[in-house]
């Protein structure tokens, strides 16, 4: 495979991964808005946890079936799928830690609002989420896939 084709495939995967991250974010926001409206403030922690798990799982399914199709490891039946999902959830814990740390640093050092800080923090975490999940979850190789 040519270097050009390999680079093009990586750019395509990163673009899909980013787009599906946006879809996952929308899923999370919808669950939070609906849950808060339906169940109220007193259950917000459970709503937030449900939104986080559901949105990350949505991103995993989209990336498993589309972004990383034909790349790396996809075997192992339901057990393999469950292991990859668990790894993906762990990667997103790391990504969320990076995002939240960035958000708080921007808030306390530069006075940037949490909403803007969340967007910037997510942008900082995105390459980490993509790289680590590609390697850890699907075991993608360097330039031959």
UniProtKB/TrEMBL annotation:
Gene Ontology BP terms: polysaccharide biosynthetic process
Superkingdom, natural source: Archaea
> What keywords would UniProt list here?
Membrane, Transmembrane, Transmembrane helix
Q: Where in the cell is it found?
A: Membrane
* Gene Ontology, cellular component aspect: membrane
- According to the entry, every stretch annotated as the GtrA/DPMS transmembrane domain falls at 17-138
Give the InterPro entries listed for this entry: GtrA_DPMS_TM (IPR007267)
Residues annotated as transmembrane: 14-36, 42-62, 90-109, 115-132
- Which membrane topology term applies here? Multi-pass membrane protein
Question: Main localization of the protein?
Answer: membrane
Q: Which Pfam families match?
A: GtrA_DPMS_TM
Provide the protein name: GtrA/DPMS transmembrane domain-containing protein
Q: Which lineage do the record's taxonomy fields give for this organism?
A: Archaea, Candidatus Marsarchaeota, Candidatus Marsarchaeota group 2
């Amino acid at each position: 495979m040519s270097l050009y084709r390999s680079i093009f495939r990586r750019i395509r995967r990163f673009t899909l991964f980013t787009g599906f991250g946006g879809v996952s974010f929308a899923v999370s926001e919808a669950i939070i808005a609906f849950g808060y409206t339906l169940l109220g403030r007193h259950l917000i922690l459970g709503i937030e946890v449900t939104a986080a798990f559901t949105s990350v799982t949505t991103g995993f399914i989209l990336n498993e079936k589309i972004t990383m199709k034909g790349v790396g490891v996809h075997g192992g039946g339901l057990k393999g799928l469950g292991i990859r999902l668990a790894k993906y959830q762990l990667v997103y814990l790391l990504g969320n830690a990076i995002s939240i740390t960035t958000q708080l640093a921007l808030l306390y050092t530069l006075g940037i609002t949490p909403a803007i800080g969340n967007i910037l923090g997510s942008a900082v975490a995105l390459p980490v989420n993509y790289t680590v999940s590609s390697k850890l979850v699907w075991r993608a190789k360097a330039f031959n896939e």
